[in-house]
Amino acid sequence: MRRDAMERGQNRTHSAGMGEEQSSAVGITVEARPAPPSPPRFSFYIDIFGYCNLRCPSCPVGNWEDDASVFHHGVMSRALLEAILDKAMAECTIAGVALFNWTEPLLHPAIHELIGVVRSRAIHCAISTNLNVLRDSDLLMRANPDWLRVSVSGFTQEVYARGHAAGDVEVVKTNMRRLAEAKARTGATTDLELYFHKYVDNEADEAPMRAYAEALGYRFASDWALMMPLEKTLTIADPANPRATLTRADHATIGRLALKTAEALAVTSKHKVTSCSLQEDFIVLDVNGNAILCCTCLASQANTIGSYLTMPIEAIQSARRSHPMCKPCMSVGFPLLANYAVDGLDDLAQRERAAFRCGTQPVAGLAPAGSAQMADRQL
Fold first, then answer.
1. Of the candidates 183, 119, 175, which has an alpha carbon nearest to the alpha carbon of residue 145?
2. Is 3 a residue whose pLDDT tops 90?
3. Is residue 78 assigned to a domain?
4. pTM of this structure
5. How many structural domains are present in the chain?
6. Strands, E, within the chain: which ranges?
7. How many Å apart are CA 328 and CA 236, to the nearest integer?
């Protein structure tokens, strides 16, 4: 899971010489007062809808039981979002607000109003969607979110359905066109991005999807798919201390990954991680306004820090830094994997794809490129 929606927050340092003696205009030596500390700077990920319409197998909505203690069904009200943003503006610098984390924001019946709540405060607003639902393209584009990502994993339905289960790529393509046309009609300035999730077996679908997206004016981006949530990743890393159950379906999904979790963690674990950008730069809230440990983990009771509206941000951060899941996560270098922030990961994935093309690394139930099954597939 790559978090490209907003600039990663960094606390700014003050100029050199702060606090040193300086000479005043009248020749009296005085001690300069240190400038007040800058407020912390965060990007916010806020689930405004409680669930998703798809069941993507690498996402917890698709690979975890629909447990009410984990997935808090419902919609966020305008009043709650306004209260969250007003508190945030009073206690930190907001780098941006993404109206999503694990769920589908366009299912919210008043998504355009919530975008307006963010933008009326001069805050960068980001949306990520599977775009299987698009109720009113003009209304959405008139709201003019700063950035809107459409996530896909194939150009043909056969391939797309493997990574975006219960979705219809032809509906997505139609909605991409509708959205691009609405952007032109309304004069919106939204940065439209098509984000392609790369698996070992969907290489042939990437080029046609890129061509289709760019012809409509979308900026194309891609990354290697990862197995989520964090609980399943840590179980792969340390099977003797499982934090989740890995089902037969999970193992099939892991087999489709070009960037194999265990091999990737073998690379990242060689690097010492003492701090985590996912923790220090991002605040994650569920649909009820509760602060959650991290954007990569479940919104379970164990990972719920508390109500954002009633906890000072310093208390939230203190609780996050001392959470028992952080140590094993950083010990295997998962923050580096989540941000694709270490050399060697791309090489691992490319080798897996090459082996799949040659037929030396089969995926259960799939045929490698060059086989009769692949040759007959219509792209």
1. 119
2. no
3. yes
4. 0.87
5. 1
6. 21-23, 29-31, 41-46, 93-98, 125-129, 147-152, 191-198, 219-224, 282-285, 290-292, 304-307
7. 12
Domain that holds residue 76: 39-375
Query: What residue has token string 């209304």?
Result: 139
CA distance 84 to 261: 35
State how far the Cα of 216 lies from the Cα of 192, in Å rounded to an integer: 10
* Cβ(132)–Cβ(54) below 8 Å: yes
Instruction: Dig out the tokens for 190 from the structure.
Output: 């939204």
Give Cβ neighbours of residue 38 (< 8 Å, ≥ 6 apart). 11, 12, 14, 93
Q: For the residues 29-35, what does the mean pLDDT come to?
A: 62
For residue 169, the one-letter residue type is V
Indicate the DSSP class of residue 151.
E
The answer to whether residue 18 is domain-embedded is: no
Reply yes or no on whether the pLDDT at 180 is more than 80: yes
Give the bridge partners for 75, in sequence order.
49
The whole-angstrom separation of Cα 6 and Cα 42 is 10
Q: What are phi and psi of 253, to 5 degrees?
A: -65, -45
Residue 286 domain flag: yes
Which of 45, 40, 1 minimizes the C-alpha distance to 283? 45
Distance, CA of 368 to CA of 379 (rounded, Å): 15
DSSP labels, 74-128: SB--HHHHHHHHHHHHHHSEEEEEES-SSS-GGGSTTHHHHHHHHHTTT--EEEE
136-163 per-position pLDDT tens digit: 999 999 999 999 999 999 999 999 999 9
Q: What is the pLDDT of residue 339?
A: 95
Query: What radius of gyration, in Å, describes the C-alpha atoms of the chain?
Result: 22
CA distance 54 to 62: 7
What is the CATH number for 150? 3.20.20.70
Six-digit token pair at 300?
């379970």
CA-CA distances (angstroms) from residue 349 to 155, 228, 237, 256, 336?
A: 20, 17, 18, 11, 16
Q: What is the DSSP-derived secondary structure letter of residue 182? A: H
Looking at the domain assignment, is residue 33 inside a domain?
Answer: no
